[in-house]
Design goal:
40% helix, Arc Repressor Mutant, subunit A, three-stranded antiparallel sheet
Length: 321
């Protein structure tokens, strides 16, 4: 029944957008979705993203959508597999992304954002594209995230080099790692690929991790992305990990084979955050809070919860002072 309800909503949205000669603000669409279907803006955005993936709708100016007429939209450059993954737990990912975008928007010294590839980070790019008052450079290996942020006010987008993997809408490999090392200067660029980089003030990275283990190790399913994720964390003063509740502590049947980092290795960071969705259990919440505190050197962990996301924040370098 739920699938039928969603199909009905999407058909109604498509009908409405096709009737309009203008791009329709998401606030207007959210009012309609609430009035006619009783669903939240988070659910609405999930429906709109599905329509974008099907090339029936595209996002135009900040926070507006319009029907695609007579052509396939380039909305999700990167292939059907990425579009399919984008729909998996879409509402959880959108909620996480909204919280991350809000955090980044409030960061007074943010100048450079290293935005990881992944479906949740795509949604982060989507929400950042709607914000005003930004003044930052975004480096990313995600083709779709770069496309989404292109033209966003106050944002200069730089796509990292590397081998293109169209099914996942990402570049990766040794060339991507070298492109990240080049950001740290000639000396770092000439160092071995696995050598740690210096971190830079005002640089923040958002990492999309596939699994957080109970011992604090962070994993990715993609071996070619392991090193670039690690380098992004090395360069950054602040690190935000995005992971929905399904990626916290449960058994992963061997998919977590590629270790990126451990939480203990993030002790030198100014702030470390984990942003997840509100469907985490009480047990997961307690375990994550205790794990962050222990791994980061008995650091105080603040938890902020809302209707749509939970944010765990630890500032290990501040506690060490």
């Amino acid at each position: 029944m739920r699938a039928d309800e969603r199909a009905t909503r999407m058909m109604r949205l498509l009908e409405l957008l096709n009737e309009q000669e203008r791009a329709v603000p998401v606030s207007e669409l959210a009012e309609l979705a609430s009035r006619e279907f009783g669903v939240s803006e988070v659910t609405l955005r999930s429906d709109l993203t599905a329509l974008c993936a099907l090339f029936g709708v595209r996002k135009s100016a900040r926070g507006t959508y319009e029907a695609v007429r007579g052509t396939r939209g380039p909305e999700l450059a990167g292939g059907s597999l990425f579009a399919t993954r984008l729909q998996h737990r879409a509402e959880d990912k959108i909620a996480i992304a909204a919280a991350v975008a809000e955090l980044l928007g409030r960061s007074g010294d943010l100048r450079v954002l290293l935005l990881d590839a992944g479906t949740t980070t795509y949604y982060v790019a989507d929400r950042l594209s709607e914000r005003s008052g930004l003044d930052l450079i975004v480096w990313t290996p995600s083709v779709s995230a770069a496309f989404r942020l292109a033209g966003a006010r106050g944002v200069s987008v730089r796509l990292l080099g590397g081998e293109l993997h169209p099914d996942y809408a990402v570049v990766s490999g040794d060339e991507t790692a070298r492109a990240l090392r080049a950001l740290a200067g000639a000396e770092a660029e000439a160092a071995p690929l696995d050598a740690q980089l210096p971190q830079f003030p005002g640089t923040h990275c958002v990492l999309d991790v596939n699994y957080i283990a109970a011992d604090g190790r962070l994993y990715t399913d993609e071996s070619k992305e392991r090193l670039q994720k690690r380098l992004m964390a090395d360069l950054s003063e602040d690190v935000t990990l995005v992971a929905d509740h399904s990626k916290l502590f449960g058994r992963r049947l061997g998919l977590q084979a590629h270790e990126v980092y451990s939480l203990e290795q993030l002790r030198t960071k100014r702030c470390v955050r984990v942003v997840t969705d509100p469907n985490v259990s009480d047990e997961q919440t307690t375990q994550l809070q205790e794990l962050l505190s222990r791994s980061l050197g008995d650091t105080r962990v603040d938890r902020a919860s809302g209707a749509d996301a939970l944010v765990f924040t630890a500032c290990p370098s501040a506690d060490a002072v």
